[in-house]
Write a structure and sequence with these properties.
The complex is a heterodimer of chains A (622) and B (455). Chain A is α+β, with helices and mostly antiparallel strands and 622 residues long. In chain A, 36% of the residues lie in helices and 17% in strands. Among the domains of chain A are: 103 residues, tRNA uridine 5-carboxymethylaminomethyl modification enzyme MnmG/GidA (Arc Repressor Mutant, subunit A), CATH 1.10.10; 57 residues, DNA polymerase, domain 1 (Orthogonal Bundle). In chain A, strand 8 and strand 9 form a beta hairpin. Chain B folds into three domains: 113 residues, 2-Layer Sandwich (Gyrase A, domain 2); 124 residues, Up-down Bundle (Four Helix Bundle (Hemerythrin (Met), subunit A)), CATH 1.20.120; 168 residues, Rossmann fold. Chain B is 48% helix and 18% strand. Chain B is built from 14 helices and 13 strands. A seven-stranded mixed β-sheet of chain B has the order 8-9-10-7-11-12-13, sandwiched between helices. The N terminus of chain B is likely disordered. The chains are: A alpha+beta (622), B alpha/beta (455). Chains A and B meet through helix 7, strand 17, helix 16 and helix 19 of A and helix 3, helix 4, helix 5, helix 13 and helix 14 of B.
Chain lengths: 622, 455
């Protein structure tokens, strides 16, 4: 049966990519349908119950700056907030929140259900509807056909998912959920390169069987940070504690003695796992000289006793899981409520995508999230947002939004994926961003909210909030540029400047030993006034980074010149002398649209770029 | 990122290498006039030849004519200045150095032509030729880089890159994984490591011999007893090379400086004719200054002559010389014994361990062999491409060193570790121009293999 209503954008999957994609498209006013296997699991955190962290909260802030879901939901569900890297500079500071799974799901679902232009339907998708080389819709299990010119596929680990516990294996998209095998078969028939990845989760523990008196406590930060730039502490639910325990010699011995029973070590798993999130058996083998490993014990929520022991993901059989857990301090009597497991799943080589996340093979089909070989809620959400935006823009006949590496972590993420592909689940780190000093969590709104407003993504409330902040920042920076401090004045003394000559307040703020808080005290600004302090801190960051930012701006200006140098799509790379065979093949395959993009291809040299440019100019002027 | 179409200021010697009547240094890009006027110490006039002295700060380098072509009416279509002086390679190199210190950079092979093409100064037919030129010179440059990257120099550069990478692994791991219990260097350890890298940079720049040769020429001192034929040897070496002979100020009248070129290798020959102990205080001061000049030499040519020559006598003189230099700063000069006047008598057999060459300054016999020995001692190969490849390496090393210095300052100044990381990543990018980039993913790979990450 053909569903009676026509849609503009269909999003398949209700995880973190799917919800951001659906919400973004709907915010832009196009008729959007979210198809999910199970409405109850919309916004489900399948792995650890936490949002944010280094590099990741940067992505959340960017989603937030475009009025997305993740940051707002985190403030409604966060039960433990910390600022990471608080002793380091603002560019690498990040917020990490433990979230109550149920509260998080509810918050996401509430946002979606209140979103105009968005319909939700519970049904498993079994096929894509294709006409020629474009997608026109999809077919569900009960033979319902939905039609839309754009389809965003966000199927996570569900494509041909296989769960491993020891030598046992069974199909599954997530413990307790079925995989999407019909769709996987169908997609494998399309001209996409497919690979296998794996990831793992630890066993969950019943908190009533843990002796907390033996554990190190890890409280949340005071003052407590918020995730969204519009977040309020008053939104946060009750706060709780995390705990820390450690593995020991006995833990390691049990793991070593049973390695042959691990799915990963017995060769049952062909997929590649992430280097930064190794299983406990991996850690014990690869870092054999370490006598202990730190395990963070994270609460799953306020209304459950389940705990998530972060750091012991494993594919060992259940009896081994239980035995090694019980060697750890505090876990002597631990009861496992759900066994840990490794999961293998299909992903599509992201090099078959364009910067908009539309596939090269099928017009109107977009991929976002783990399907592209990434890991993490934040990475998934960021891609979902981008795919949703571009699907909506395509429907509206607008050009794609393709954020650059110097604009957003989303740009870094997509650029890395489609140019370099990935061989392990891709996770964001700040070290991936060469313009890290510009791409901060604190200025995500300044970088992206104006764009979001232009694209029709940003609601009235956020727009006004942003405009107020910008006005205050402008007033304050003009103020600081005008006011000066005289040597020997009270301000000179209070700030311990030891000035020799009259100095602008702005220049004083540039000094490493002068902080926004110090200035606030000296100027009798109320440090509890969060808005005023926020603006003052923003000014401090911008002032202190100014020199570095200017240098990066020069670099960016160079790149943009290359961005402006378009390469005609018909350029015959195979016929260009002076390029290595390998480069010719890569160029022929990737057909970069501009010189800047050609420069991103692995193995590219300045000389090769010059040659490409000359030939590009020849084609244009011929 | 490439700089294929960067609009920065580039400079290069535009005339063929070697000694000629006129040598032209060309400067192209925005600010060409401003930078050139600092060298010329006077205003330039559009498309008019202006006579001036070329100076680096107060030091006079050469004199000649400066020509300013405002954009777009120039060879490259950009603002261009030509400095036309005398054709000595040492002088021209010094002018390039002065320009680089004012913000220009050395042009890559074919870069002037490339810019001319981009600015529509070359027609379509010429485009192919430019592309060919770039590809052939880049292949040659790549080959040269590979050649250069064998041996001592490359080991040192690679070692430097390794040390910076190791430090970056530490710093980036501390930034990206603050919750892990990583055994990361404390601040004091990073400061020590940075200081060691700064020192290593200095050492390697110092030992990047070819680069220094380019900028100052090979310093060679002629030493020997009176009447062994030092002057005639100097004349014989210089004779065919159009040497410029000048007095060195501040030394006695007996000290002569000669700039000459042997197989494209710029050489500054200092002749110490008549350098001997003196009773006269003024002359003593002169002698001391002359000795200091000699102590700076890369190579000492110890001239001896037949027939009054014995193996033991030569060894004695070498020993004496070594003692003289033992207290001096820097590495002692290499000693090459030149046995002169072979036209008068056959030279005696000298110990093979003593590096020597037999010549007749009068007949010219053995001069070719002497030159090639000099060249070999200098570690110089007669390949212009490799020569310039090395010069670019030294450039990259200096730029990287400045960044490492900046990261040390950032750390000691109490700035955030992310700024230390920023300077280090730039330092690595400069060094990457020599050996290829270390990508973010390479770095992460190192972090994951060295630290147990993963909560």
């Amino acid at each position: 049966m053909r569903y009676p209503e026509q849609f503009d954008v269909i999003v398949i999957g209700g995880g973190h990519a799917g919800t951001e994609a659906a919400a973004a498209a709907a915010r832009m006013g196009v008729r959007t349908l979210l198809l999910t296997q199970n409405i109850e699991t919309i916004g489900q955190m399948s792995c650890n119950p936490a949002i944010g962290g280094i590099g990741k909260s940067h992505l959340v802030a960017e989603i937030d700056a475009l009025d997305g879901v993740m940051g707002r939901a985190t403030d409604q569900a966060g039960i433990h907030f910390r600022v990471l890297n608080s002793s380091k500079g603002p560019a690498v500071r990040a917020v990490r929140a433990q979230a109550d799974r149920a509260l998080y799901r509810n918050a996401v679902r509430k946002i979606l259900e209140n979103q105009p232009c968005l319909r939700i339907f519970q049904q498993s998708v079994v096929d894509l509807l294709v006409e020629g080389d474009r997608v026109v819709g999809c077919k569900t299990q009960m033979d319902l056909d939905f039609y839309a010119p754009c389809v965003v596929l966000t199927t996570g680990t569900f494509l041909d998912g296989k769960i491993h516990i020891g030598h046992e294996q069974h199909p599954g998209g997530r413990a307790g959920d079925a995989p999407s095998n019909l769709l996987a078969q169908r997609l494998r028939a399309l001209p996409f390169r497919v690979g296998r990845l794996k990831t793992g989760t630890p066993p969950r523990i019943d908190g009533r069987t843990v002796d907390f008196t033996k554990l190190e406590q890890q409280p949340g930060d005071d003052p407590r940070p918020v995730m969204s730039s519009m977040g309020q502490r008053s939104e946060h639910p009750a706060q709780t504690q995390c705990h820390i325990t450690y593995t020991n010699d006995r833990t390691h011995k049990i793991i070593r003695d049973n390695l042959h029973r691990s799915a990963m070590f017995s060769g049952a798993i062909e997929g590649v796992g992430p280097r930064y999130c190794p299983s406990i058996e991996d850690k014990v083998v690869r870092f054999a000289d370490k006598t202990q490993h730190q395990i963070f014990i994270e609460p799953e929520g306020l209304t459950t006793t389940e705990l998530y022991p972060n750091g012991v993901s494993t594919s060992l059989p259940f009896d081994v899981q239980l035995a090694f857990l019980r060697t750890m301090r505090g876990f002597e009597q631990a009861h496992i409520s759900r066994p840990g497991y490794a999961i293998e799943y299909d992903y599509f080589d992201p090099r078959d995508l364009t910067y908009s996340l539309q596939t090269k093979a099928l017009e109107g089909l977009f991929f976002a999230g783990q399907i592209n070989g990434t890991t993490g809620y934040e990475e998934a959400g960021a891609q979902g947002l981008l795919a949703g935006i571009n699907a909506a823009r395509k429907v509206k006949g607008q050009s794609f939004w393709e954020p650059r590496r110097d604009e957003a972590y989303i740009g870094v993420l997509v650029d890395d994926l489609i140019n370099l592909g990935t061989t392990e689940p891709y996770r964001m780190f700040t070290s991936r961003a060469e313009f890290r000093l510009r791409l901060r969590q604190d200025n995500a709104d300044q970088r992206l909210t104006p764009l979001g407003i232009d694209m029709g993504l940003v609601g009235t409330q956020r727009r006004q909030h942003f405009q107020v902040k910008m006005r205050q920042l402008q007033v304050l920076s003009e103020d600081f540029a005008r006011q000066s401090i005289l040597p020997g004045s009270d301000l000179d003394a209070v700030l311990a400047l030891n000035l020799r000559k009259e100095t602008r307040l702005l220049d004083a703020l540039r000094r490493p030993e002068v902080s926004a808080d110090g200035v606030a005290q000296a100027l009798a600004v109320d440090t509890n006034d969060e808005v005023a302090m926020g603006v003052l801190r923003q000014l401090e960051i911008e002032t202190k980074y100014a020199g570095y930012i200017r240098r990066q701006d020069d670099e960016i200006a160079k790149i943009r010149r290359h961005e402006g140098m378009q390469i005609p799509p018909e350029l015959d790379y195979l016929g260009i002398d002076g390029l290595s065979n390998e480069l010719r093949q890569k160029l022929d395959q990737q057909r970069p649209a501009s010189l800047a993009r050609a420069a991103r291809i692995q193995g590219m040299t300045p000389a090769a770029l010059s040659i490409i440019l000359i030939h590009a100019k020849k084609v244009v002027s011929a | 990122m490439t700089d294929a179409v960067d609009q920065d200021l580039i400079c290069a010697i535009a005339t063929p290498p070697g000694q000629g009547g006129i040598g032209i240094v060309r400067l192209s890009g925005p600010g060409a006039k401003r930078v050139a006027e600092k060298i010329c110490a006077r205003g330039l006039v559009s498309r008019k030849a202006v006579y001036c002295e070329f100076k680096n700060a107060a030091e006079r380098l050469d004199d000649g004519v400066a020509l300013w072509f405002p954009a777009p009416n120039s060879f490259t279509g950009e603002e261009v200045v030509e400095l036309q002086g005398h054709g000595g390679p040492v002088v021209q190199q010094q002018i390039l150095n002065a320009l680089c210190s004012l913000g220009a950079r050395l042009a890559k092979p074919g870069e002037f032509s490339e810019r001319a093409f981009h600015n529509g100064k070359l027609d379509l037919a010429q485009a192919e030729a430019v592309a060919d030129l770039i590809s052939s010179t880049s292949i040659a440059a790549a080959r040269a880089a590979v050649n250069t990257l064998r041996g001592d120099f490359s080991n040192k550069v690679n070692d430097l890159i390794e040390r910076i990478t190791t430090l970056r692994v530490q710093v980036e791991a501390a930034i990206d994984f603050p919750d892990e219990e990583l055994e990361i260097l404390e601040q004091a350890g990073v400061v020590e490591a940075l200081k060691a890298i700064v020192q290593a940079h200095k050492d390697i720049i110092e030992s990047a011999n070819q680069g220094r040769l380019l900028s100052s020429g090979l310093q060679v001192a002629l030493i020997g007893a009176p009447n062994v034929g030092k002057s005639s040897l100097l004349n014989a070496l210089a004779g065919e090379e159009a040497a410029i002979v000048t007095d060195i100020p501040g030394t006695t009248r007996d000290l002569l400086k000669v700039d000459l070129l042997i197989n494209n290798l710029p050489i500054r020959l200092v002749d110490t004719a008549g350098l001997r102990d003196s009773e006269d205080t003024i002359e003593q001061q002169g002698v001391a200054r002359a000795r200091a000049q000699i102590a700076q030499a890369d190579i000492v040519l110890l001239v001896v002559a037949v027939p009054e020559l014995t193996d033991s006598g030569v060894k004695e003189q070498i020993q004496e010389l070594r003692e003289q230099f033992s207290g001096a700063q820097g590495p002692p000069p290499e000693i090459l014994v030149v046995v002169n006047k072979t036209d008068l008598a056959a030279p005696p057999d000298l110990d093979q361990r003593v590096n020597h060459a037999a010549v007749s300054a009068r007949t010219g016999e053995g001069l070719t062999e002497l030159k090639s020995k000099l060249q070999k001692l200098a570690g110089y190969t007669d390949d212009a491409t490799e020569f310039s490849a090395r010069a670019r390496h030294v450039d990259a090393l200096k730029a990287a060193a400045a960044q490492v210095d900046a990261s040390l300052l950032a750390l000691q100044g109490g700035l955030g570790v992310e700024l230390v990381a920023e300077e280090l990543s730039l330092a690595q990018r400069y060094l990457g121009r020599i050996t290829g980039d270390v990508s973010a993913d390479d770095l992460l790979g190192r972090i994951f293999s060295e630290f147990c990450i993963g909560k």
